[in-house]
Amino acid sequence: MSTEPSPPPSPSLTERRKAATQLDIAHAAAELFASRGPEATTAEEIARRAGIALRTFYRYFRSKQDAVGPLLTDGADRWRGLLEAMAPGTPLGPALRAAAERALAAPDAGAAEALLRTRGLLRAAEDDPALRAVWYRVNQESEERLVPVIARLMGPADGVTGAGGRTDGGGPDALEVRLVAAAATDAIRIAVETWADTEAGAEGPGSPADLAARCLERLLGGLDRA
User: Fold this and answer.
1) What is the pLDDT of residues 39-75, one digit of tens each?
2) Taking a C-beta distance cutoff of 8 angstroms, is the pair 112, 203 a contact?
3) Which fold has domain 63-225?
């Protein structure tokens, strides 16, 4: 019997439409925040830019700052998805770096535009605590969702948790798994924040992918020998 986890069910048409609408709203909010600033932007203007009614906006989001959540989450989901596709036992250091470089790459104009939109959001968040809170919340949620992915890469976790957090079935140490998930998430966050404070391009030296790889190499290089 296979020990691989069953793939999650495909989202329904309604769920896909909802996600698409939320992302459209997030793009509209990000554009307005970057060009005008969060304080000068209203929920009504975001709804109008997204082509929806204000009541529809509030059906999905509690505040104008919350509206950018799906855009920020999209990048984290892409990185995690790349890691989920890797085989258990893949060396963690190289796996994390490879996934980060691919997730933050800008192979076309659309990907580059998405990264630049994130840069605009992070710059706008410097003077808006509510927008910063959304960014930190997205990173915290990403870290939590990364934990089972890291555990799977590190080895089977089919035993009973024993002393020190290690499973009796030979699974990974729970403390180490959480530490790796937290460190990797923060490494990506710091790389993107550092890039947002510069004028470096979306590709090449100083890009998000370049900085993320450097952060992970310094922070998690020891995992290559684990």
Assistant:
1) 999 999 999 999 999 999 999 999 999 999 999 998 8
2) yes
3) Tetracycline Repressor; domain 2 (1.10.357)
